[in-house]
Amino acid sequence: MKYRINLLPQKETPLTEKIVYFALNYLRYIIVITQLVVIAVFFYRFQIDQKIIDLKESVDQKKEILQIVLPLLNQASNIDKKTMAVKDIFIKQQTFQEMLKYLLSIFPSAINLTDFEASVDSLKLTGVSTDSHQLQSFYFLLKKDNKFDNVNLDSIKKIENGYSFKINLNGFNKDK
């Protein structure tokens, strides 16, 4: 067995030698790792830049699509408004037609109209009746059928050839 005994005390290494030793042995690993991190960040930056470019192109494409589609949407909105207006007109015409059809179906033959005013859901009848019972039954039939919300006999006068009258009919309900 061999022993090695060193009786000389070890010399204290100066700080500069320690720094040089550290720099030569460990700093190169730190530099290599730092360079790898920098390269990884550099490639990651390329990926992020490419995504940003793709997103900008996508936004530009969508802006162009909106610019193309916006006039079409405005035109479709205008057509929709016109269609709704036409539907309202058709509904008003159908209601008015049903109102006149109902009135003509119950109108007695002994009554002659001298004036007839019509609006969307109301009628004003002015006329002459030769038979008071026919006028009375016409008035009560209008009340009883309840097709109009308001049935008013405004005036009735006895004249030489019968009875002059004015009837106001308001609020026609075709469902009743």
| Biggest sheet overview | 4 strands, antiparallel
Q: What is the class of the domain at 107-172 in the CATH system?
A: Alpha Beta
Q: Point out poorly predicted stretches.
A: none
Helix content: 55-70%
Radius of gyration: 50 Å
Number of separate helices:
2
CATH architecture of the domain at 107-172: 2-Layer Sandwich
- Give, in order, the helices and strands: HEEHEE
Number-wise, the strands total 4
Global morphology: rod-shaped
Describe the structure.
With 176 residues, this protein is of the alpha+beta class. The protein has a domain at 107-172: 2-Layer Sandwich (Gyrase A, domain 2). 60% of the residues lie in helices and 22% in strands. Strands 1-2-4-3 form a 4-stranded antiparallel sheet, covered by helices on one side. The protein is rod-shaped and about 160 Å long. The N and C termini lie far apart (127 Å).
